[in-house]
Predict the structure.
Amino acid sequence: MTMFPTKEKYLHRLLQFRHKICAFGHAPFSRLVLGIETSCDDTGAAVLDETGQILGESLHNQKEVHLKTGGIIPTVAQQLHREHIKRVVKEALERSNVDPSQLSAVATTVKPGLALSLGVGLEFSQRFVRRHNKPFIPIHHMEAHALTVRMLHPVAFPFLVLLVSGGHALLAVARGVDDFLLLGHSLDTAPGDALDKVARRLSLIKHPRCSTLSGGQAIELLAKDGDRTRFPLTTPMGSTHDCCFSFSGLQNHVKMTIMKQEAEEGIEEGMVLSCVNDIAAATQHTVATHLAKRTHRAILFCKANNMLPSSSPTLVVSGGVASNQYIRKALSIITEREGLHLLCPPAKFCTDNGVMIAWNGVERLREGKGILPPNVDVFYEAKSPLGVDMSEEVRAAAIKLPSVRIKIPN
Ligand code: KG4
Ligand code: ZN
């Protein structure tokens, strides 16, 4: 007897099959997919075979430039994608030892994201598939984040997924490759964006330990040496019994705290406060608590409506913010209490890359879903919600949470 239904058993066998990879570097007779990602500030490409084996990848990160300008300027991101996309795709193919003629399809992020960035990847991909006469698979960036875990573990549908990045916060039930129920989403900004803005307001780029780190990474590093109780912050949306998120109020509250401390220490904006570790620790703890509480309600909603399997239900957490160990620990307190299995892809697969897009292409290719001939015109969409929106039903259920202490050593 196996815990996986037939399709999952097939996936499990494919994962095992990777160990028997032939001398060509990929599974014999396996179809190959090129994935291309340009939705935000990473130019990524990768070639995967049907078992999920990564044959070759390349990633160009724009972080250094955007850190200097104090945030992503869309025209700058577009220009950098234009400068690097050809090389990145060429590198991924060369490292895979794969000629375009050997590909079974090209998968590219077409939604959601920065319009100017999406446009570069889409335009490049449409020219590429026409030149090489290959099928095209348009990819939803959040669907790709949600499914990446299945490249690494045989996770059966349905599972609960929390996606937290610089552009998104959402909770959804993944029921199939293209079948999602959206339980909650951010009403304003995303947690990664809030962390990036707090880091910027704290001038962490001038901090000797943080100059090359993203805002979220810098906050996590400094919080390790901070006292999270020194500057108490309110957990957002305490009186709203749904699974939506809000981070702009928290962002403002932290800004006010910073201004007050600057006045007390007699320093100006642009200088690094002496209490920067304590502010980082309080911010990180409040973000973690907010994510944990909304996720807890989503789990209870799923349980009340039998939306997850009774045996081995799983919470998958992904997106750039999911690489934060403190946030993972906060979520594990909830999953342990509620009997869910918690899975987070390693940090390199949580942030944006070409691999997750290629994997989404593999999953769609296997199921024959959303595969287009090369000559069909495809358009990008800057905004595109994931799946069917159930957030009103969740709000109407108004599930009250039991009190759980999120107590984590730094
Ligand atoms: O998924 P991602 O690479 O790009 C998109 O936003 O789609 O996520 C980037 C975001 C940034 O806001 C960054 O500050 C945040 O993820 N991030 C982190 C950590 N590493 C990256 N946030 C908290 N803790 C981290 N360790
Ligand atoms: Zn992302």
In short: The chain has 14 helices and eleven strands. Confidence is low (pLDDT under 50) at residues 1-7, 10-24. The two ends are 42 Å apart (CA to CA).
